[in-house]
Every structure is written in structure tokens, then in C-alpha cells.
Amino acid sequence: MLLLSVIGICAQDTTYIPTPENIAARKEFQDEKFGIFLHWGVYSMLGDGEWVMWNKRINRHEYDQLPAGFYPSKFNADAWVAAFKAAGAKYITITSRHHDGFSMFKSKVTPYNIVDATPFRRDILKELAKACQKAGIKIHIYYSHMDWYRDDYPTGSTSKELPHDESTTNWKSYYKFMNDQLTEILTNYGPIGAIWFDGMWDHAKETGFDWQLPEQYALIHKLQPACLIGNNHHKAINPGEDFQLFEQDLPGENTTGFSGDQKVSNTVPLETCQTMNKTWGYSITDKDYKSKDELIQRLVRVAGMNGNLLLNIGPRPDGQLPVEAVERLQAIGKWMSLYGYTIYGTRGGIIAPQKWGVTTQKDKTLYIHILNLKEPTLLLPIEGRKILQAHYFINGTKVRFNKMKNKVMLHLDKIPTDVDEVIVIKLK
Questions:
Q1: CB atoms within 10 A of CB 272
Q2: 8 A C-beta contact, residue 353 and residue 374
Q3: Which residues pair with residue 348 across a beta bridge?
Q4: How do residues 140-160 score in pLDDT, each as one tens digit?
């Protein structure tokens, strides 16, 4: 009855006005700066990424045999969360249901879930939510809008390439299924920091398909007003969305081709999701991991562009995190333990991102993050602001500077060689 009443109300008025709780949650989200993305499901058993069902064109009636053998005996929610917290992450985003349609939580509206369809019979989402609450880390929930498995899902651009009986599609039934599952998640698992949607692009807007987002978003905000909503649709944000997502690119960039029409919003927080290697879900052959320094610099650059980094890990089918991922988490954690103060709680600085690096800022304190500089001097385009002092963040050693018209020249002790040389500038 709750679901129907909320949808009934929203159908009459789809105007979205964020609650005070939501506005506060947005600020907290911006302050957190670093989260861990987890792509985990029965697809991990095939060791070929989260899109293996589609990539291999696996018949859904063959694919649905996988859960019977899924038993992640080495999964330990507390150990996972401890590793993420030690890395400096403030939240995690876990796939509750990916495009393959399998739910990683106990659901009353489908038996195709980890408790009812596997011999493991444990609710992964519940265990992670409990571990996060104990550790003081927020949990966000990834939820797929599209589904390659269900009979009632209206066939879209990707699902049409998988065997499907068109006569069974029923949008009303599928929409109710999604909202019933979202109600379960937002009712049974404690405070949820965000719902992270994906897959809406399976039905392009040009086709006239109506996802009924305003009603769905209103349901989420009704159940948990502080819960943020993001949608990985690669377009400008829709009413009801509380933060903007960027996939494999920094805000405003389009090196992957996903963000061609995606203008950066200046009204909501920003988040960019990034893989450590090439794939999101576990791949037994993908060892092309980015270096520790590259990942640290990506975190810094995102912060300098006023966003959060959501760094992905694809856990193994046995429930363990890949060794390569753990090594990189440890390196990030070591760096954040020293320099996290220049990242957490900051916003993009008054100096726009440059080739040499970025700036972050807290009030009148500006942090210069030098990531790529081949000389011992740095010219800063600071106009209309007076510098009171400058020093190295790590040891407090003063940095000489002199003003040049509308710019300031910093004279460093040496050419920077660290992954990130941080200079603190006090502004008047």
C-alpha cells in the first residue's frame, strides 16, 4: 500500500524540492571525496566481467544455472569494510542487481536472489550494510534499470540481442517489480546513502520510452529523504537527481565517448567512477591495472575538479578481493593518511585545473597539488587575491614567492618528484 500511495501522490506532482536532510547529505557527500565501487554477482564465476551474459550471448535459461554453484565461502563483510576504511574511503557502492537480473540480497518479489537461489543462502547486502554501520562508512546501492533476465522487461537496445519472448513484456509489471525491490532495500537495510541507477540508456530518450523517473525518485525520497539519487545515463541531470555521474572520465572530459552530451552541473555534487584495470566485474585475465601513483593522482584530480572518485573493484567468486586491488588500496590509504586533510572536506580551488596539477580549497586555505612539473618554479594565475604565506604541507617549510602582475611565482626547493607535492597557501 505504501508503494501505491507514494506513486499516486507523485503522479499528481512531480516537482522536486530537496528536503533539508537531503541538502545536508549532499554536503556530506561532497566532503567525503572517496568511495569504493563493488561490481559483484554470479557473473564473477565466469571470470569475464559483468557483461559476460551479453558479450557471450548466453541464453538466460543457461545463465540462470549459475546461482546453484555460487558459494563465496571466503566472503567477510567486516574484512572488506576494514580494507576500504584503511584506504581512506568514506562510502561504498555495491551492485544489488546488475543487468543480468540477479539480486544480491533477499527479495520477496523474486526467487532469483542470493538467499533463495544459491547454496550460500546469506544476504550479502545485509552483511555489508551492518559492517558499514559498525565502521562508520556509508553504503550506497547500485541498481540496474534494465534487465536481461526477466520476462516482463521491455526489450531494449542491448536486451534485443539476447533471446526473449516479446509477448511477455509488461512495463507496468516490471516497473512495480523495481519499485518493490527499491522499497525492500530502503526499508530493510538501514540508512542508505544513495541509489546509483544504471542501464536507462537501453531505451534511448529519442524512442519516446518513459521510464517514469519522477515517480520512482519520489518513492525513494519519501522512504529515505536523505538518500541521494544518481543516474548513469550520460546526459544532463533530470529533476530529482541529487548528484551527477561520470563514467571513466573526469567531469567535463569525454575520452571514452560516454559523456558527449553531458554538461557538468554546477548545482549538484559530482562523482566519477573509475576501474582499477579494464573491467568492472571480476576478470581472471585482466591484469592491466593502473599504477598506484596513477590512481592517487586520479583521486587528486577529481577532488580538484570538485568531485568524488568512486574507485571500482571486482571481487572474486570466492568472496576475496583481488590481490592487485588490495595492494593499491593499501598504497592509497598510506597516502591519504598523510595528505587526506588536503582532500576531505575541500572544494575545487580558485585556480582551475592545469596541466601541472589542481587545487583544492577550504575557506581561505588553498592547497596546490603539483602532479606534473619539470621545473622548480610554478606560476599561479591568482588574480585579485593576496597571499599571506606559502609552505610545504608535509613539513611546514616555507616556500618563497613573488607577485607578477596578476600572477604569483612560487620558488620551490627542487623539481617535484613525489606523486603529489602539496603546497599550502594562506589567502587574505
A1: 23
A2: no
A3: 360
A4: 999 999 999 999 999 888 878
